[in-house]
User: Which sequence fits this backbone?
């Protein structure tokens, strides 16, 4: 399916998203094999090692799930959360023209990815009955105040999302929005414009819900931000904005079912990337949709993959990447490179494990990144994310026919040309010995997107098991938060600001100003 | 300047961009030194090697400039191009409410970066007299037709930009826009809504200008797409949209002047990244503005850096990364790693040179990527791009004071908090042995952005000289284009479609469908 050259289709207006077909997703990894690539490719013997490793990793997954450590896997079949979100949307959506998500990272990226996919511009005019969704994911004063300034507050619902209730960025957004609402609408009315999604028991936001009576949703225990798109974190704003969350969940459920079958896409995706990272030094994975609608799926994936797999310690607490561990390790994602690299680099690397997912967009980044992917260091894999049919397509007119250089374009649809670019690029990379793989869906629909997201979440946890790390934590982000608290002057963090202000590392010698 | 903790500022409304001050940019590289980082940092002895290498590379730059090979360096002082663009804007801007750039890659990214910086949302309301700028940089049928559908064609100017006139994506955009214009306005009127920016002599677009009498600008010979922001490619649409291109050029001119001084930021930026890549295995450079306004500068930079430096051949034609060359080379960006890596990886690497610039955005990606940057493989450097003052700032209200966890936020401005996040993150990375550097500008203004862009273009060419490659070409993108031509059915490329369709690399065994 994925590699086939499709015949020319007639020009068309909007194509209704089809119900999920027998194959909502296909993975084509021909361009990873030594048959396609030569010495940089995976051999049959390489590929044969996957099964054994995946059997262990999958067992680890099911063991953890049994222990209740992977509740994200149960979300596609949870009957209550979507029911509540739909009920909420039905009751409230008529009151609002805009829903603004106040959140950052995992509280923002899932809704943004799905909304961009399902409610893109092409479909805007037909959906006027539904509120528009804005996802604010930064605290830039210029950007955030511009968003606030342009809102009609009387028809805006702010959905504050933070599991802990302590996220500094989200809480500042909330405090600013709250102040504006109160000024504009008065204390009593303001409350009706706030929806809080947070932990069911703990944290300041839950306390504020309890004392102020905000509308609220709980975030289930054990589901971290980057795995939360199918909780109320994603489903509530998406339901308000008219996304068919039932079909989204339906696609995710099929992906979860498929995960029980041997050789499923999720496990294979993890296994192939594990082979590429350990055996082929592919430290980076470029996620490159050829579809504007799927452009934010790369952002969501980059958090999922990078925050889950970039780790300094094994699940059992041993440090990764110390010289000793690197020598011992034979299945670490990065241990292999450390081992292979030998004496020359040993001292320099106090290095953890992980593969860097890089966001890209086809065909745009072909004109920006392809030179590097074709000729630069052999340190990446490109994952194409393709769409077979577009919901709207347009035919290039057969004009300027007197110019031979333009004749070939007329009569083709943009969708065809975009897909030919994708196929041509995949092949060119392969002929240059550059490994790449393709995920392809028949058309962007709630169910095909649900299938894709759940597949990638499953692949991430399996990848963690292959690397011997815990994909669900993020211990490395704490130090930065503490320094920030210290600098802002939060009570209890004065030692961090003192530590920050130590002269040691602010030598004027290493600061150069323009014109010096 | 860059590392200083600033005092609390009062809440403010819009701050007028100041005229360029004595220091439009500062580079702080304390967090690259071994003093800050320990064993992963650059030692004084490392740093001492830069001067000699930079002297050679800078000589190479000036030699090439003398030969006329680097005309981009003359653009900031070119009197004619900006004059023509301003004249054009003055004459035409009242006729149009929207300017749509039809272009891709280097024809799109410069205008997008500057427009996002200078005409962001916060300033929108005050600029109603100027046309809005839309930069289309893809041919996704859903996305592109949505843009077309929403335009009022009677007040839209399409600026078609392609140096060769043969860029398939741009020409399809053009053909579609042309058809719509003719249908709506008739043949004669349609012409007045088209501005063509292309080579002064050659290519189909120039022929069409000559035969149809479109308004047009030339692209100077020898200036490639990624170095073209200060030609009419960037200046014409920016002038139409009300950006002060005189100040933009003024900033660039100062950067070009500063480049003549030893130890300037451009050369140092190149030298430091060269040391990090060759000596410290930093294959990736994360460009991370903490400013929504500068968010598209990373996209522009990622093309500039990656397409310029990702190369398989030396400037003299020798292949990079073959085992023999890798052994010989001592100053290749990647040769050092190949050499260090020894036998274990030799066979796998037929690898070019180059450092992968990765786009990121603070504080957003702190909540998405920081875990990986803190704990993952020691293969990256982070370059923070900071702004000391924001043009609009807002103060977080002191509400919810009864909750200790929120008290510290009230009274601070968003801009302060954003900058504390940047400083805290830089320090946290450094304490974890992760190299990072900071570019800081006083405020986003046309001149400070001009300074930044010219500095980064200069740094890129110097980096190419350090690596012994030609930063101005992109031979690696041709094969993909040829395959695409073959697949679309362009005359003369049938052998490419035959080559594509060879069964060899489309083994059904390596395609997995959902549910299999």
Assistant:
């Amino acid at each position: 399916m994925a590699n086939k050259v499709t015949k020319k289709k007639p020009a068309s207006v909007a194509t209704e998203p089809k119900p999920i077909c027998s194959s909502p997703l296909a993975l084509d990894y021909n361009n990873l094999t030594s048959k396609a690539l030569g010495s940089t490719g995976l051999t049959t013997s390489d590929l044969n090692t996957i099964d054994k490793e995946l059997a262990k990793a999958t067992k680890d997954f099911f063991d953890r799930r049994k222990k209740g450590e992977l509740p994200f896997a149960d979300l596609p079949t949870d009957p209550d959360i979507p029911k509540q979100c739909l009920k909420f949307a039905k009751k409230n959506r008529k009151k609002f023209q805009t829903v603004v998500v106040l959140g950052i990272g995992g509280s923002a990226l899932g809704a943004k990815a799905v909304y961009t996919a399902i409610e893109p511009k092409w479909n805007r005019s037909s959906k006027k009955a539904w509120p528009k969704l804005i996802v604010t994911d930064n605290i830039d004063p210029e950007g955030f105040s511009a968003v606030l300034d342009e809102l009609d507050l009387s028809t805006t619902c702010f959905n504050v999302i933070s599991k802990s209730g302590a996220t500094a960025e989200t809480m500042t957004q909330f405090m600013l929005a709250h102040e504006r609402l109160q000024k504009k609408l008065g204390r009593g009315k303001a409350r009706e414009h706030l929806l809080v999604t947070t932990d069911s028991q703990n944290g300041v936001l839950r306390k504020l819900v309890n004392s102020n009576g905000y509308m609220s949703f709980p975030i289930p225990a054990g589901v971290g931000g980057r795995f939360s798109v199918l909780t109320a974190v994603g489903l509530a704003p998406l339901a308000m904005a008219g996304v068919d969350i039932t079909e989204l969940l339906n696609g995710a459920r099929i992906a979860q079912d498929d995960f029980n079958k041997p050789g499923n896409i999720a496990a294979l995706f993890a296994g192939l990337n594990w082979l590429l990272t350990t055996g082929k030094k592919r430290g980076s994975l470029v996620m490159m949709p050829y579809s504007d609608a799927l452009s934010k799926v790369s952002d969501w994936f980059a958090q999922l993959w990078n925050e889950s797999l970039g780790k300094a310690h094994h699940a059992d607490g041993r440090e990764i990447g110390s010289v000793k561990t690197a020598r011992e390790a034979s299945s670490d994602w990065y241990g292999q490179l450390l081992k292979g690299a030998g004496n020359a680099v040993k001292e320099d690397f106090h290095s953890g494990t992980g593969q860097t997912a890089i966001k890209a967009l086809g065909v745009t980044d072909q004109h920006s990144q392809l030179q590097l992917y074709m000729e630069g260091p052999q340190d990446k894999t490109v994952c194409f994310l393709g769409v077979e049919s577009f919901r709207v397509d347009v035919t290039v007119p057969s004009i300027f026919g007197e110019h031979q250089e333009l004749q070939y374009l007329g009569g083709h649809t943009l969708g065809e040309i975009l897909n030919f670019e994708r196929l041509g690029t995949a092949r060119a990379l392969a002929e240059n010995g550059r490994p790449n793989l393709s995920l392809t869906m028949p058309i962007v629909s709630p169910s095909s997107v649900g299938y894709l997201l759940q597949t990638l979440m499953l692949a991430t946890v399996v990848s963690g098991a292959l690397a011997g790390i815990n994909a669900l934590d993020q211990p490395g982000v704490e130090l930065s938060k503490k320094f920030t608290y210290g600098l802002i002057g939060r009570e209890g963090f004065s030692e961090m600001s003192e530590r920050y202000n130590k002269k040691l590392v602010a030598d004027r010698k290493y600061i150069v100003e323009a014109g010096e």
